[in-house]
Design a protein that fits this description.
The structure is a single chain. By secondary structure, the chain is of the alpha/beta class. It has helices at about 35-45, 70-80, 95-105, 110-115, 115-135; strands at about 5-10, 15-20, 25-30, 50-55, 85-90. A 5-stranded mixed beta sheet has the order 3-2-1-4-5, sandwiched between helices. Strand 1 and strand 2 (about 15-20) form a beta hairpin. Helix 3 (about 95-105) crosses helix 5 (about 115-135).
Length: about 140
């Protein structure tokens, strides 16, 4: 069984998380610029077996796609085209940034470090991925 990669896609930053080999828990991995993503993912897939991707999908409060889908849909199409053998799952990403920020406070992260938006993106990616794992049927 390979790992799953969680992605919190943004136009400025992409938060990446990864599961353990048994796909039980998700951990924050790295935050990249969109321009760094292709090289990173190519290198990561050489080192680690990966079954698929879990991407946070922006949804409004009334369950419709948000305005941000116009930016993430091309990314999803490109990922599916580049890795047709990998599964791509979309997960509602509502409130993940707020939950990530709150978890940093509750975890005792100092105020100065909480300003690091790249940390929020990594944690958000792990929340997205863990949500997928928690709801996965075997």
């Amino acid at each position: 069984m390979g790992r799953m990669i969680g992605i919190d896609y943004g136009r400025k930053r992409i938060g990446i998380s990864v599961t353990d080999p048994l796909q039980i828990f998700a951990s924050p991995l790295v935050t990249l610029s969109p321009g760094e993503f292709d090289n990173f993912i190519d290198e990561y897939l050489i080192k680690e077996p990966v079954d698929g991707f879990v991407i946070g999908y922006p949804v409004t409060l009334n369950n419709g796609p948000s305005e941000s889908v116009k930016f993430i849909n091309p990314f999803i199409r490109k990922l599916k085209k580049k890795f047709p053998e990998k599964q791509v799952h979309l997960v509602d990403e509502r409130f993940t940034s707020a939950i990530a920020f709150r978890s940093m406070i509750e975890g005792g992260v100092k105020k100065e470090k909480r300003k690091d938006k790249s940390m929020i993106d990594r944690i958000s990616a792990s929340l997205i991925l863990q949500s997928f794992l928690d709801n996965k049927t075997f």
